[in-house]
Amino acid sequence: MKYPDLNLLLALDILLEEGSVAAAARRMNLSAPAMSRTLGRIRETLGDPVFVQAGRKLVPTPRALALRDQVRSAVEQATQVLTPGEHVQLQEVTRRFNVRANDTFVGLYSGRLLDEMAKAMPRATLHFAPEEDDVDVEMLRSGRIDLLISAARQLGPEIRVQPLFTTRFVGMAREEHPIFSLDITPEQLAQWGHISISRRGKDSGPIDRVLGELGLRRQVSLIVATPYSAIFALLDSNLLLPMPEHLARSALAAGLRVRLFELPIPLETVPLTQAWHPRFQQDAAHRWLRQTIRQLCNEDE
């Protein structure tokens, strides 16, 4: 029986993840021509083009998309089989950790986490991507993301979850905003236009529900994708910005000309957690990442 070249499996996994011959070549420490030849061998082995040209980009064929999860799972299993879990040399780990994380965590801890990784796993790469609601659970199960850091919510029964820290929402406005000349009441809160932070364009949430119970309604005048865009838009306007306190205080510490205020309405606190699939429970490098994240969060409690 002739066995297939299993190196092609790893190459295919990286090609499917990167969607680029040049990027895959860099990941595998190969030249672009060598990676192109490897893609040619994959095509010959599978009897499928695998990738086809669409404008200036390569896009996977239906067969490649159908194989993606199977290929990723096979590579992960082979890696675990060939790696002595308790004897992994973290300094030699070259893997890429795909982490879906909300902006609060990334804004507060990404710098310190990268510093710790540079010391413990200098050859590893950290890739942050924004949350995508229900898609995140399936990506955890398929192994396409290693870790999910988000506000606590229901995940699959098999998913491991660990609390990190709890934050609450406060209000932010430019230093000279007229709202600071009076007592801040629910009516004052609803009087001024608001900025909403949402990658999916949402303009309502818990604040609107509470104001609605009081017979009030706010006007969301601006929707932006990131907290940093929201803060800079705030500096030149009379808009108000409700946001997580941890992130708001980091903006204040950066010397920006803003002031924080207590929201005059009752809102629930927001617990943040990290979640992972059981396949990574005993993985030494993954365990180091989880423990380091938890430790960083504990330092600020």
TrEMBL record:
<keyword id="KW-0238">DNA-binding</keyword>
<dbReference type="GO" id="GO:0003677">
    <property type="term" value="F:DNA binding"/>
</dbReference>
<dbReference type="GO" id="GO:0003700">
    <property type="term" value="F:DNA-binding transcription factor activity"/>
</dbReference>
<keyword id="KW-0804">Transcription</keyword>
<dbReference type="Pfam" id="PF00126">
    <property type="entry name" value="HTH_1"/>
</dbReference>
<dbReference type="InterPro" id="IPR036390">
    <property type="entry name" value="WH_DNA-bd_sf"/>
</dbReference>
<comment type="similarity">
    <text>Belongs to the LysR transcriptional regulatory family.</text>
</comment>
<dbReference type="InterPro" id="IPR050389">
    <property type="entry name" value="LysR-type_TF"/>
</dbReference>
<protein>
    <submittedName>
        <fullName>LysR family transcriptional regulator</fullName>
    </submittedName>
</protein>
<dbReference type="InterPro" id="IPR036388">
    <property type="entry name" value="WH-like_DNA-bd_sf"/>
</dbReference>
<keyword id="KW-0805">Transcription regulation</keyword>
<dbReference type="Pfam" id="PF03466">
    <property type="entry name" value="LysR_substrate"/>
</dbReference>
<feature type="domain" description="HTH lysR-type">
    <location>
        <begin position="4"/>
        <end position="61"/>
    </location>
</feature>
<dbReference type="InterPro" id="IPR005119">
    <property type="entry name" value="LysR_subst-bd"/>
</dbReference>
<dbReference type="InterPro" id="IPR000847">
    <property type="entry name" value="LysR_HTH_N"/>
</dbReference>
